[in-house]
Prior knowledge:
Butyryl-CoA Dehydrogenase, subunit A, domain 3; four-stranded mixed beta sheet; globular; 3 domains; alpha+beta; 11 helices; Butyryl-CoA Dehydrogenase, subunit A, domain 2; four-stranded antiparallel beta sheet; single chain; Butyryl-Coa Dehydrogenase, subunit A, domain 1
Amino acid sequence: MQALPAIKPQRDELADFEAQCDAWFRDNIVADPGFMLPLTFMEVSTDAQFDFLRRWQRKVYEAGYLGMSWPAEYGGGGLHPDFQRTATRIMRKYDAPILLNAIGTGWAGPLILDVGTEAQRRRYIKPILSAEEIWCQGFSEPENGSDLGNAQLKVVRDGDGYAATGSKIWTSLGDRADHMILLARTASDAVSKYAGLSFFLAPMKVAGVETRRIKKLTGEYGFVQSFFDNAHIPADCLMGEEGQGWSMAMKTLEYERGTKVNLAGGYYSKDMDVMAIVDLARSSARGGKPVLDDPVMRDRLVDFLIDIQGMNLNSQRRNISALNQDRPMGLALMNKLTRTELVRELTQFSLQFQGTRAGYYTGDDEAVDAGFWHRSYLNSFSATIGGGTSEIQKNIIGEHVLGLPKTR
């Protein structure tokens, strides 16, 4: 791809780039690889899915359409963000496959660019973009639920590095990852539980690390439980200083929850197409009549359309500072909560007018759209949990946006 200046592009310059980008994605997307593709990075289950998506991300990166606004000296494009926004929009236009290395490009990479050392940026950023090295996230633990500050996996000094012992759970792509962003306890006698935490860019393919796959409601895999038994972590994998883990974790969650944006581009989950549900309702019948003839069902569909349009407009409003002066973080914090809950409600709604065929799942010949809606509904729960459950998100909005007192 021809290099472009790292300044805001002129309208005609951006139009030329859009045409170039449009042609590339039109000609290079494989719509049907011969197997079911995941809707999100949390659903990558089979070797075929993983290998296909890894090759796809590498291809997009090598074509120059990923990491376009990240610094060129670390493997990015060094261009104005408008180019990346355009490329991502074209990806959605052609319903391109998701990008596999979500934790890397969406969480770890931005954090390393923001607060990592020069050596860490040069070591990790390019392999993140090319999907040469896959990343996972080690925050949740089996016994601590949403109490992230109570993480108990222990990391102690061991010669020229550290040794990690404990367990993390709900680790997306953990069995395939090369590295983990790991929140761990380095001091049990600190003045507070938060002060005893540290943050590491931990290697996964070393002695002492074991992963066990977790079967989901859908029958697929994608999550694992990760076990560490004196696993070695090099000293240069520490982010910041010992005891700064909580602040690093909060920076990471800003990216995960969408309150801070420095993404490499692309997307890690497919947006739910409400018009596809309208088409499903149009072709479905209840009591011998099309579902859309039912005024109650029509009203519900219109409500969903209004909600989606509202969220889309709020996403645009986030970029206009004058419209966010009263509560600058309000829209960003709301976005994760409202979108994940809407997808759950919308996919559940789609099952209500499939009649007797609503009982069939993927693999059944009688399943509607090969079981797509059932699979989407069951998978929708993972997004309402990851990055903080909906209940936690409501507390964050109440306390940090609305100024309500902290609940007990």
